[in-house]
C-alpha cells in the first residue's frame, strides 16, 4: 500500500534555531514529491516540488532533499521565524494515476517560540 | 494572477440538513478541480475531482456529491448531513495536464464544517 509517513508528529523550537522534518514514503514509482506549508485554519501552500531525479530544492529558508534510494525526504528550515509556525505536509505524486492520486502525509506541526 | 475562493469559512449545520459548499477559481480556464477533506492527524483525503464541466469522479463512497456547473465553479453538496461529515473541506485547482508540468495544487482556505 502506498504510504507517506512524517516525523516528528509535532515539534517545538526556539526562534532563530534550525530544524529538520522527515518524510518516508513507500510510493514507487513516483513522479514528484512536494512539501506544503499549512497555517492553522488555512489551505496548504506549496513550498517545493522535486522530481524523482532531483536531490535538493530550496525556497528561501526552506530546503528540501530527496533520497530516492532510501525513499526519504527532509525539509530543513534555517533560522526559524515565528511565522514558520504551521503544519508541514509531505505529498507524493505516484507515477500511475498522477495528480488524481496524490498521497498526503499527516503533517508535522511546528511551533516556533520566542 | 489566479485566485481561488471558497465559502463559507465556517459552517455549523444540524444532522439531516442539506449542505452546499462553493468554490470558484479566477484567472485561468479549464482547470482541474478537487475537493479534499482533512481530518485531524490524518492526511488529506480526495473526495472528488473534475477535469471539465459536468465531469465528476468520486474517490470514496460517502454521503456527499459534487457538481461542476461552470468551468471554474465546483460545488460540494449533501442532501442529509451526518455527524461523520464534520471536518475541514478544501477545494483546490491546478492547470490541466496539457499545461505546466509538475504544477502545484493551489488550495482555497477551506470550510470548517461542524455537524451537530
Mean pLDDT across every amino acid position of chain A:
93
The string of secondary-structure elements of chain B, in order, is EEEEEEEEEEE
Query: What's the total count of β strands of chain B?
Result: 11
Structural class of chain A: mainly beta
Main sheet overview of chain A: 6 strands, mixed
The number of helical segments of chain A is 0
The major β-sheet of chain B equals:
7 strands, mixed
Overall 3D form of chain B? globular
So what's the oligomer here?
A: heterodimer
Number of strands of chain A: 11
| Rg of chain A computed from alpha carbons, rounded to a whole number of angstroms | 14 Å
Proportion of residues in helical segments of chain A: under 10%
Uncertain regions of chain A: pLDDT < 50 for 5+ in a row? none
Mean pLDDT of chain B: 91
Give structural notes.
The complex is a heterodimer of chains A (114) and B (116). Chain A is built from no helices and 11 strands. Chain A has 114 residues and is mainly β. In chain A, the strands form 2 sheets. In chain A, strands 2, 4, 5, 9, 10 and 11 form a 6-stranded mixed β-sheet that branches. In chain A, a hairpin with a 4-residue loop joins β7 (62-67) and β8. The mean pLDDT of chain A is 93. Chain B has no helices and 11 strands. In chain B, the strands form 2 sheets. In chain B, strands 2, 4, 5, 6, 9, 10 and 11 form a 7-stranded mixed β-sheet that branches. Chain B has a 4-stranded antiparallel β-sheet with strand order 1-3-8-7, with no helix packed on it. At the A-B interface, β4, β5 and β10 of A face β5, β9 and β10 of B.
Amino acid at each position: 500500500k502506498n504510504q507517506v509517513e512524517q516525523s516528528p508528529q509535532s515539534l517545538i523550537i526556539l526562534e532563530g534555531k534550525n530544524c529538520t522534518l522527515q518524510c518516508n514514503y513507500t510510493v514507487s514509482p513516483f513522479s514528484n514529491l512536494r512539501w506544503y506549508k499549512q497555517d492553522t485554519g488555512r489551505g496548504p501552500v506549496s513550498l517545493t516540488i522535486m522530481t524523482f531525479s532531483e536531490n535538493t530544492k530550496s525556497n528561501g529558508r526552506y530546503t528540501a532533499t530527496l533520497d530516492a534510494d532510501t525513499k526519504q525526504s527532509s525539509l530543513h528550515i534555517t533560522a526559524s521565524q515565528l511565522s514558520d509556525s504551521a503544519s508541514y505536509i509531505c505529498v507524493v505524486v505516484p507515477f500511475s494515476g498522477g495528480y488524481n492520486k496524490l498521497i498526503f502525509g499527516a503533517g508535522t506541526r511546528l511551533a516556533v517560540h520566542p | 494572477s489566479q485566485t481561488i475562493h471558497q465559502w463559507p469559512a465556517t459552517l455549523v449545520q444540524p444532522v439531516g440538513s442539506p449542505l452546499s459548499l462553493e468554490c470558484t477559481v479566477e484567472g485561468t480556464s479549464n482547470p482541474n478541480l478537487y475537493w479534499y477533506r482533512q481530518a485531524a492527524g490524518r492526511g488529506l483525503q480526495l473526495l472528488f475531482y473534475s477535469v471539465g464541466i459536468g465531469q465528476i469522479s468520486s474517490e470514496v463512497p460517502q454521503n456527499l456529491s459534487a457538481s461542476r456547473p461552470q468551468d471554474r465553479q465546483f460545488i460540494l453538496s449533501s442532501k442529509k448531513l451526518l455527524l461523520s461529515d464534520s471536518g475541514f473541506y478544501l477545494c483546490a485547482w491546478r492547470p490541466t495536464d496539457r499545461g505546466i508540468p509538475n504544477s502545484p495544487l493551489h488550495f482555497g482556505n477551506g470550510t470548517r464544517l461542524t455537524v451537530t
